[in-house]
Structures are given as structure tokens and as C-alpha cells.
Please model this.
Amino acid sequence: MMEHNLGCVTQIPLGEGRNFVVDGVEVAVFHTRKGVYATQAECPHRRGPLADGLLGGTTVVCPFHAWKFDLTTGQPLMGQCAIQTYPARLSEAGEVLLTFDSQGPLPCPIPQGEEIGAGQAAVGSAVGPARVA
Model:
């Protein structure tokens, strides 16, 4: 495993995420009040951009279908698959240091064409209720 310096944390506004390419793998890095966290860049459900999701504490909500993940463990809080996490920390100089082992996204056993199951989440916006026609 190798530690990569991704630059100053100020390039990621507090409460947001940004994507970085490390050893050819896209990684989402999140800047929270509790520190920095790094995960695979895409949601395992429909490849939603996690860095564009809603961030609250150590939880990220995918902007496509509201799947939620714990940034500390990668475990799903709403959804059926976990996400890959990577150790990240801030240096004394405020730089994001990512320990990377070249593992890409975790596989998700749900076929890409299937929707999330009943009781998981309403398909729709992560910030509002879904509308059923």
C-alpha cells in the first residue's frame, strides 16, 4: 500500500466531496467536520457520482436513488451493497493523504437493470419524495 498526497484539503469545501484519480482508479474524497474520508467514486446501484451526493456527518446519500452509506465503514445504511473505503487523513499542513491499495469498487450482486427493493427507498430525488404516476 502506498500513501498519496492529494493536495490541500481547501480544494474540497467543507461538507462536500470531490473525485480524484489515484493509480487509474477514481476515488471520492469527502471533507467533513470529523475529518476526511475516501470511498469508491460511484454508487454500486446505478453508478451515481457519490462525490455529488448529500453529506451529513459520516453519511453520504447518492444523488440518483438515495442509497446511503457510512463513510467510515462503507456499509449501506439504505441500499443493498457496501462501498469500498480507503484510509484517508489530514497531514499537519492540511494536505489530504490517501492510503491506496489499488482495489477498485466492490462488486454489487444486484443486476444493473433492477430497482432497489421495496422498503429500501423511494426511487426519486435524494432531497424530496418520489412521485408515482
User: Anything to note?
Assistant: The chain has a mean pLDDT of 84. The chain has one domain: 2-100. Residues 2-100 form a domain with the Rieske Iron-sulfur Protein fold (CATH 2.102.10.10).
